[in-house]
Amino acid sequence: MGNEVPLLTTSEIKSLDRCPQAWWWGYRAGLRGKAKPADALWFGTGIHYALAEWYNIGFERGADLPSKTFRDWVGDEVVEIKGNYAEKEREWFDEPAYYDAGDLGVAMLDHYVQEYGEDPDWEIIAVEQAFEVELVRSGKTVAVFAGCVDGALIDHSDGYPYLLENKTAGAIKTAHLPLDMQAGNYFAAGNTVLRHQGILSSKQTLHGIMYNFLRKSPPDERPRGSGGAYLNKDGNPSKRQPPRAFLREPIDRQPREVDSILRRLTDKAVLMDAYRTGREPLTKNITDMCPYCPFFNMCLLHEKGGNRWKQIRDQQFIVTDPYHEQLDKGKSASE
After folding, report:
1. Under a CB-based contact definition with an 8 Å cutoff, are residues 82 and 39 in contact?
2. CATH for 7-278, options being 3.40.50, 1.10.287, 3.90.320, 2.60.40
3. In sequence order, what are the beta bridge partners of 123?
4. What sign for the dihedral angle of Cα 102, 108, 112, 115?
5. Is the pLDDT reported for residue 20 higher than 90?
6. Residue 316: band (very low, low, confident or very high) from pLDDT cuts 50, 70, 90
7. What is the pTM of this model?
8. Whether pLDDT at 91 is above 70
9. How far is C-alpha 90 from the chain's CA centre?
């Protein structure tokens, strides 16, 4: 805020796409709710931190298991997190349940290491890599796209370099991944930054994005048969088999996509500048998702006109620098 050349982040683009008015309140006015951040975001941050400490450069892994790092990160905080439970009366039921966040994270990460061990095929070439990339239109820098990628690796099972994208999710969905905006943006920036830092040679390019999903569910403790199916008490395969707890999905992205992605990012920066300067009037994108917006109650009064909405603004929000985390830690606020 206040920079001659504005910063641009993926979380900001998501906010703009959802609703220009909400983007303005969050990124131009700098409003942040006084209430604690959503537990799902807090939990995901802890899992990301534990994995970042586990995957060191090269083939080295952390001195502590990810589960211990996560437990230390949680500390004495008691938070209830929504997940999916693994069994009920020795049968799988894929229904929401609530867990102590520390216990759930430890169970997930211990299960993760049981599944993948120390990943002998993964050579890590970058960890929590911050970046800043200038977006240029007609010879003028219109914004600086800033963020932080989870990491980059060479997968020696196929020999290709990938951007690493760790994901925690209640349900693992993959159909959208070839057009995933956040990872696509980071892919475009990652190629530029990793070459600039000499991590990739001028002739190398990222082959794609390695999505590393961890499902928010404790492991299914039922015994398994020779084919891997979970068994009932009678020793027969259960009709209710759990969804996969983990998934690694490499998505190829082409070098020619980089130009399209950077052009799209620049278009967003130009639109934001039009809103900032008043060349385009702010609009509201009103949908059935509005009640989930942090500004919903304030927006209701804002719609009625007058200044009553400012009372909610002053009571429920504080003014912050929305780019602080980007500038101070190099970590995207969207995670």
Report:
1. yes
2. 3.90.320
3. 154
4. positive
5. yes
6. very high
7. 0.83
8. no
9. 33
- What are the structure tokens assigned to 330, written together? 């190099």
Strands 31-33 and 317-319: antiparallel
Find out whether 292 and 15 touch, Cβ atoms under 8 Å: no
Residues ≥6 apart with Cβ < 8 Å to 173:
none
Burial (0-12, 13-18, 19+ Cβ within 10 Å), 78 = exposed
Distance CA 119, CA 55 (A): 9
Instruction: Find the distance separating the first CA and the last CA of the chain, reported in whole Å.
Output: 21
User: Where do the domains of the chain lie?
Assistant: 7-278
> Using CA atoms, how far apart are residues 147 and 130, in angstroms rounded to an integer?
6
- CA distances 115 to 118, 168, 181, Å, are 9, 16, 29
Is residue 201 packed enough to be buried (19+ CB in 10 Å), middle (13-18) or exposed (0-12)?
exposed
The dihedral built from the CA positions of residue 308, 311, 313 and 319, taken in this order, carries a sign that is positive
How far apart, in whole angstroms, are the C-alpha atoms of residue 87 and residue 181?
35
